[in-house]
Fold this protein.
Amino acid sequence: MFDNKLKTTINGNSQKTAYGVFIGFPSTQLVEMAGYNGFDVIVIDNEHGMLSAENIEHMVIASENVGVTPLVRVSSNSSSEILKVMDRGAHGVHVPQVEEKEQVKKIVEAVKYPPIGKRGAAFSMRAAQYGIVPIHEYLEHANQHSLICIHIESSKAMENLEEILSVEGIDMVYIGPTDLSVSLGFGGRINHPEVLKSIDKIYETAIKYGVKVGIHTKDKAGAKARKEWGADYVCLTVTSLINQTFKEYIMEVKSEFGIKL
């Protein structure tokens, strides 16, 4: 049965920040490369990504093989979708566009087995090692180690922030600065004072309710800044890394010929 390394890290006493990467391509190879290079978490992106259930399961397996925590960003708070990815073996979920307290309760119920939640119990699937472990041990272990990360990224969520973060069972709130800036009317200007003020409010409210804080960034400078800010968990999208590396490489190698890009 899986041990959720991210959950151990963020709940430990070391105050260590965990680092993750969102991958929306069906690629076990990218997962392995991220793991071999030291990332703590792979977020398999099925909100914006183009992934099948089989892709997700294979990427979860690849994550476990290289010792990183596999989470899945689902496309909605649908109980059936959450069930499918958890049964594939995901160690937890990122749930986008959470805006109301009732949605959070539904998410907790979908991830956790009774008596905490209402997750359907099937023991022939991968998450339960295909039924070879005692059922009661699996249920208890899964409830303890599964991680729930909800996204706050809209003006409506900000209005309901206290109610949302008061729900028992949330491990982490994840801040999407771009979506938040768009919803607040600032069109992607993630450093606008009002956006930054909202981000700080999310952080302060999460601390009040004992919820860990994750946030998205686009580069290493942003990641360092958010670590100093107090984030428990920082992620970026794999395309940000690829584009940056491609650009830096080609600009440097072509500079000797006076080529400008």
About this structure: The CA atoms of residues 175 and 215 lie 5 Å apart. The first helix runs from residue 5 to 11.
